[in-house]
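Tip: read the tokens left to right.
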């Protein structure tokens, strides 16, 4: 996977695909119990489900502008709370939030977590503020419709569609790696932080990254699951430190050293859960709770997605033999 980046890009009339289309700085993309309700479109023409989703959700989608560039977001709470990607806010305390009606609002960044790449921005609420519906607690299914709304290349309120290509896909973030949704709905620079929705117009994820050889969309985009985003956002709004599971190892990709697929432990932290469980340098972790681990980022994402104190079962190889060990995770704090 190449072309996944986390910086702010600047598109000018000289280097845009169509000169003069957008001379606006944009933020590069860094590069959510199944029910039949997922198959029920929002009210509208059943032959045009994407149009119905856009009509329902687009009024809640916003454009976020900083001195480094611009990205997207969406209002998720009537008190004026906006969800976006942490790399969109890019360390800023203040941003400009432009709502779908074109009005600019001063936005205060309440917090950002690089580990999950989630940030929360606060704007003053108003009577006409539109709020997105969230698909919290829903199992997203591979193959279901996915609609992305945001500001690619500064073109606000742009709607693209596709399907959910995969779930629990390990993707690197500015501060680690987490399981994300994969979609073939076109995502481009400026879409970062925007909404990925189901056919009912409910947000299932925050558009976050692309994998690309060219730097443009090639049908492989990723979104932070809405359950992950909301969990992080609740803590950010309260000013709490984001705490995730901690194993205490430094992993590397075994395949890069000519070995089998897995996460090769190259260092074990002293007094860590890994050390107490008996893990050693040279052990090859191949699964966490029965889910295959094929790379170091798989292991990082598996641990980060679990809460401190969670008990996990690691399968690993040592001296050609397979072993299992139960580990109670410690606490890793970040903001």
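Filled-in amino acids:
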């Amino acid at each position: 996977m190449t072309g996944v980046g986390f910086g702010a890009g600047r598109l000018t009339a000289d280097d845009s695909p169509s000169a003069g289309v957008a001379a606006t700085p944009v933020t590069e993309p860094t590069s959510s119990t199944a029910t039949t309700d997922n198959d029920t479109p929002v009210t509208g023409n059943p032959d045009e489900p994407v149009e119905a989703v856009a009509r329902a959700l687009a009024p809640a989608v916003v454009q976020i502008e900083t001195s480094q560039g611009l990205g997207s977001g969406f209002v998720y709470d009537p008190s004026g709370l906006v969800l976006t990607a942490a790399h969109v806010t890019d360390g800023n305390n203040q941003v400009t939030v432009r709502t779908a009606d074109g009005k600019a609002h001063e936005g205060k960044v309440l917090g950002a977590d690089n580990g999950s790449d989630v940030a929360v921005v606060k704007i003053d609420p108003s009577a006409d503020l539109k709020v997105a519906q969230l698909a919290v607690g829903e199992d997203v299914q591979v193959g279901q419709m996915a609609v992305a709304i945001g500001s690619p290349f500064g073109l606000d309120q742009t709607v693209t569609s596709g399907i959910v290509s995969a779930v629990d896909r390990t993707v690197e973030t500015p501060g680690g790696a987490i399981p994300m949704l994969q979609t073939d709905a076109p995502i481009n620079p400026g879409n970062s932080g925007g909404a990925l929705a189901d056919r009912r117009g409910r947000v299932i994820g925050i558009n976050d990254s692309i994998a690309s050889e060219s730097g443009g969309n090639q049908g492989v985009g990723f979104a932070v699951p809405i359950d992950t985003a909301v969990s992080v956002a609740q803590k950010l709004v309260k000013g709490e430190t984001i705490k995730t599971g901690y194993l205490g190892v430094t992993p590397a990709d075994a395949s890069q050293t000519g070995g089998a697929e897995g996460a090769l432990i190259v260092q074990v932290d002293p007094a860590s859960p890994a050390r107490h469980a008996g893990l050693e340098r040279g052990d090859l972790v191949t699964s966490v709770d029965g889910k295959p681990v094929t790379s170091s980022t798989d292991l990082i994402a598996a641990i980060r997605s679990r809460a401190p104190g969670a008990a996990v079962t690691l399968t690993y190889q040592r001296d050609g033999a397979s072993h299992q060990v139960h580990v109670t995770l410690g606490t890793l704090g970040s903001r």
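The radius of gyration is 20 Å. Confidence is low (pLDDT under 50) at residues 1-24, 31-38.
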